[in-house]
Design goal:
101 residues, 3 helices
Length: 101
């Protein structure tokens, strides 16, 4: 049962990543298109780049939140423990073997 929940959480995360990228890019594209059409400016490319960058930032924050665990107190998934922590840093946060001054 726990494995099914983890698979569903990952599938929903993938779905949320896709929707987030689409919405941020779409809104910035719409704003740039609206400004170009009504004001006669050439800001569409600027807003396209802004939409891509803001989409990547939003996706980064989503994935970082998932990796760290949400407010339910989830621990990190097993696959992420070694991937996002330097070798000399303890991913569990304990101070074993370190000077605690």
């Amino acid at each position: 049962m726990k494995e099914k929940r983890e698979v569903l959480e990952i599938l929903f995360l993938i779905l949320q990543v896709g929707i987030t990228m689409l919405v941020t890019f779409g809104l910035c594209f719409a704003i740039g298109f609206f400004l170009d059409k009504n004001l006669g400016t050439h800001l569409l490319w600027l807003f396209i780049i802004l939409g891509i960058l803001s989409g990547y930032r939003a996706v980064y924050l989503l994935i970082r939140k998932y990796i760290k665990g949400n407010a339910n107190g989830r621990s990190e998934p097993e696959w992420a423990k070694g991937a996002f922590h330097p070798d000399d840093e303890d991913p569990e946060g304990s101070d074993s073997g370190k000077d605690s001054r």
